[in-house]
Design goal:
The structure is a homodimer. By secondary structure, chain A is an alpha/beta fold. Chain A folds into 2 domains: 119 residues, Up-down Bundle (Four Helix Bundle (Hemerythrin (Met), subunit A)), CATH 1.20.120; 220 residues, Translation initiation factor eif-2b, domain 2 (Rossmann fold, 3-Layer(aba) Sandwich), CATH 3.40.50. Helices cover 41% and strands 18% of the residues of chain A. The first copy, chain A, is built from 11 helices and 17 strands. In chain A, strands 6-5-4-7-10-16-17 form a 7-stranded mixed sheet, sandwiched between helices. In chain A, β4, α6 and β5 form a beta-alpha-beta unit. In chain A, α1 packs antiparallel against α2 and α2 runs parallel beside α4. The longest helix of chain A has 35 residues. The two termini of chain A are 35 Å apart. The interface between A and B is large, with 56 and 57 residues.
């Protein structure tokens, strides 16, 4: 079996990050030394996936404090990282948590050490969460007799420390010998499905096929999929889920075909401050991502639309809670319309 | 105003076809001289769009008969062209119609002339149909107070002689000063929306923006679209519609948001022999189209998925009649669940 993928590694005062913009063509590691470096890597999606964004930004604060023991470095690290990506709640959560741990100490090596400890604690929590999501999710899929799963974007080890979120139950179901096929939607504009999920599934030896995003609904309608399983970027208190653009359409297709639509994510993705999906700010990324496709393994891109064509690039969409069959977290499985159970998860999340 | 686009032109024993695989980067004309040349251009999508496929294949029969006056050329032309694309009913219809007109004459110049006359008649019918679809469709959109339209793939002058099918009412609404914005989905794998629809809308001076296919459902849910308007490749007798893969997902999103989902096409697209969408054969095209994206204006492509990754490439999907608000034809507007009206259209279609 191949080495488990590890997309981030903190070692010797450096955060090593596998540059995901270059996969599957090149395995190149970035050496990040400060908050700005981490923020830049987050912005250009060299590091991506809600839980991994959280862990990286926690380390970003720690790197900045280790590099600069002055009184301003904590605020600077905070502001630099918070501005990097607006939608993922994990980023704000991790930065706040590491900053609070650091702020309990005066500027200096003690503060830097406290920040690093907290960043490591977040990483270890996410690894444990991934393992628990794998077990709970596989139990659920097994119970539902799911053998052919459609997933969108990438919610594997490249998106979350450990085995990922949505790909963790898939890997576990495969290990149990119950998985037949994974359909991975390519996920335009940045092709995380075709590039990253296919790369991970290939390493794991899991039978899979890539389809264009528009092919999902028709294949689901024709009975070729038993369940849809996706990760999530932010979950509102009412169970509405923001995830990679395209997710909502797959949820509609699953609902029309009466197959389960399952969302996997750590409780850190639940945002008790956001009452419903209508309040979630949808990040609009550079229209150039839509106007172009990769043309070389160096990351160069080729324009597909006429030169003067305007493009719109909403990076996420919102799937309403009523379309979600189950929400798999490290604390167990909840049905989003089961408000009592959601409230329990939220209570637990508030305690963290 | 720019010259109207004309994607096909028969002149001096040659069928000139604008090579749509090279748009918007290059405007290169193919010189087609026989049935095999037309079939090859259809297979590689240099000529595409259901009505244009029909017209081109009609001319394909005529070219072959003009080139070879022998007794076998009619059967050869028929077989070569019928095999080129399985889903579009227009191809089989046009080949059959031209072949029947030709078969009424003995092999020789008379047969070739009859075939050419019939191919021209089909083209003129399609041009008239496009004009009528423009008027009926714009009346409907105007009545529904539609100002922001989402369209999928390309159903313009590059897909049908004249002004196209779905883009014809859009152009007419624009001419009436009632159109605000067209959202064009890029339409992976072959990007007919980003490449061709954006090119046509730009030439027409129509305000537009390109989005990835996965962004449509979220934008529709957020109230940014008043109606979805698409073309069609085959309409079953019960009103189910086969169209470019991705169409069904947009129909689900329109239905969930309670906005009109309108299909435009000539009656030649209605197939009375096919009782429902379940009977429509879905063409699976080369998986390489999914595994790659264009990387140069010469048509060279760059692989996006890992080398050994399997891809699936269904080229169409089926939208059930109950999701379709209206069907715009050259003979008027029908609601697909209005069986009496559909039967009337079918009766008219059977008379052609």
């Amino acid at each position: 079996m191949a080495q488990p993928l590890q997309a981030l590694r903190h070692d010797g005062g450096i955060l090593w990050a596998l540059d995901q913009t270059l996969l599957p063509w090149q395995e190149r590691w970035l050496k990040l030394r400060d908050a700005q470096g981490v923020a830049d890597a987050l912005k250009r999606l060299s590091i991506r996936g809600a839980p991994l964004i959280g862990v990286a930004s926690g380390y970003g604060v720690a790197l900045e404090l280790a590099r600069d023991h002055g009184p301003d470095s904590l605020q600077r690290a905070h502001d630099t990282l918070i501005a990097a990506r607006p939608t993922a709640v994990n980023l704000a959560y991790a930065v706040k948590r590491v900053a609070e741990a650091a702020a309990a100490h005066p500027p200096g090596p003690g503060r830097a050490g406290a920040a690093l400890d907290e960043a490591r604690a977040i990483e270890h929590q996410e690894i444990a969460a991934s393992a628990a999501i794998a077990a709970h999710g596989a139990d659920l899929l097994s119970e539902l007799r799911v053998r052919r799963i459609l997933t969108h974007c990438n919610a594997g080890a490249l998106a979350a420390p450990g085995r990922g979120t949505a790909l963790a139950p898939i890997a576990e179901l495969h290990a149990r010998g119950e998985l037949e096929l994974v359909l991975a939607t390519e996920t335009r504009p940045l092709l995380q499905g075709a590039r990253l999920t296919a790369y991970e599934l290939g390493r794991l030896g899991i039978e899979h096929a890539v389809i264009v995003d528009g092919a999902a609904a028709g294949l689901i309608a024709r009975g070729e999929v038993d369940a849809v399983l996706v990760g999530c970027d932010r979950v509102a208190a009412n169970g509405d889920v923001a995830n990679k653009v395209g997710t909502y359409g797959h949820a509609l297709a699953a609902s029309a075909a009466r197959i389960p639509f399952v969302v996997a994510g750590p409780c850190s993705t639940i945002d008790p401050e956001t009452s419903s999906g209508a309040e979630i700010v949808i990040e609009h990324r550079d229209p150039w991502e839509v106007a172009t496709v990769p043309s070389e393994s160096s990351g160069a891109r080729f324009r597909i639309a006429p030169d003067d064509t305007r493009c719109l690039n909403p990076a996420f969409d919102v799937t309403p809670a009523e379309l979600i069959t189950a929400f798999v977290t490290e604390r167990g499985v909840a049905c989003p319309v089961d408000h009592e159970r959601i409230a329990g998860l939220l209570h637990a999340a508030a305690l963290r």
